[in-house]
Amino acid sequence: MKRQMHLGLFVLGTGSHVAGWRYPGAVDSFLDLAAIQEIGRTAERGRFDLIFMGDNLHGDPTSHPSYTLRLEPLTMLAALAMSTTRLGLGATVSTTYSEPFLVARAFASLDHISGGRAAWNAVTTANAGAAANFGTTHPDHARRYEMAGEFVDVVKKLWDGWADDAVVADRATGLYIDPKKVRAIDHEGTFFKVKGPLNTARTPQGHPIVLQAGGSEPGQALAARTADVVFSVVQDIDEAKASYASLKQRLPAFGRGPEELTILPGVMPIVGRTDKEAFEKLNTLQSFISESNALRILSDRLGQDMSAYDLDGPVPDLGLSDGYHSFATVMLAKARRDNMTLRDLYNLTAAARGHWVLCGSAERIADTLQQWFEERAGDGFNVMPPYFHEGFDDFVDLVVPILQDRGLFRTEYEGTTLRDLLGLKRPKNARFAS
Question: pTM for this one?
Answer without folding.
Answer: 0.89
